[in-house]
Amino acid sequence: MKLLKDIILNRNFLLILSVVLGLVAGDLAHYLKEYTFYALAIVMTFSTTGINIKDLFPLKDTIKPMIMGSLLNYVIFGTVITSLAYFLMPTSELFLGFVIIAATPPGVAIIPFSGILHGDLKYGVIGTLGAFLASLLFAPLILNIFSELDGGINSFDLVIVMAKLVILPIILSRILLFKPIKTRVEKVRGKVINLGFAIIIFTAIGLNRQVFFSDIETLALVTLVLFLSVFGLGFVHRKFCKMINLNPKVAITQNLLLTIKSSGFAVVTALTLFGEEAAIPSAILSILIVAYLLFLSTKGKPKNVS
């Protein structure tokens, strides 16, 4: 019974299940659409309990990782994905879906996978937190850059969304770390995050399931842009790090900071600001991110990492 429960609550299983159910029973997604924002707020709150503020000290050691986290996650990744989307996307709504991805904070999965993949865990925590905080600047900035392309972009709306889904969850997560409840939170954190994530992906897939059945060309183009932005950019970064002999642990964590976005955040933000079609790239991104993390996990322990 415990084994069955563990399988059901496994993130990869839930992701696959949410995609399948979205395709099969997508009509139910319309009933959940209004609740995805709250589901993400809960997921973000529990996810950010993994960020330890103590890792920010001494402050002089945090500046470089925070800057690099922001540079990799927004400037480099954002430039690549929006450039590809600009030339390949057939509609403005789909393009705006990629703009939202570019403006989205990094995925909190960067932190545990920095440890799993033998990267620099502290670098991952600091870089992720730095990029999270930088999202309050970069997200409106990225939207403003593209505001002339689509009059529907309202950066102020995104600022409100960011405040609710970044600042407030970080504050609430500190409360969840108080000793009386910290142990209980740690026991259920993974389950809450996985279930909330599954609800969000089910909704995004369900609302757009006609694309998966009838518009194969659009699906292929979206997947191509995301594959090049995640797998392609990750490959180039790994080759570059070897060429400059970067510390292997730091290289691993930087690769995660470069390629891993919070797909759940992107889905909900796209639905909130631009509608169902704009959420298609984010829904597919969630699948590719899991595939990329599994791919990195199969590469084994890098050389020169003790």
In short:
With 306 residues, the chain is mostly helical. Helices cover 76% and strands 0% of the residues.
Describe the protein's architecture and organization:
The chain is 76% helix and 0% strand. It is mainly alpha-helical and 306 residues long. It has one domain (2-297): Up-down Bundle (Na+/H+ antiporter like fold), CATH 1.20.1530.20. Helix 4 (36-47) runs antiparallel to helix 14 (263-273), helix 7 runs antiparallel to helix 13 and helix 12 (216-243) packs across helix 15. The longest helix is centred in the middle third of the chain and has 29 residues, at 179-207.
Low-confidence stretches: none
* Main sheet properties: none
What string gives the helices and strands in order?
HHHHHHHHHHHHHHH
Output the number of helix runs. Answer: 15
CATH topology: Na+/H+ antiporter like fold
Categorize the overall geometry: globular
Name of the CATH class: Mainly Alpha
- What is the CATH architecture term? Up-down Bundle
- Overall pLDDT level: 85
Whole-angstrom Rg? 18 Å
The residue fraction in helices comes out at over 70%
Secondary-structure content class: mainly alpha
Residues in β-strands, percent: under 5%
Our measurement of the CA-to-CA distance between the termini, rounded to an integer number of angstroms, reads 38 Å
Number of domains: 1
Give the beta-strand count. Answer: 0
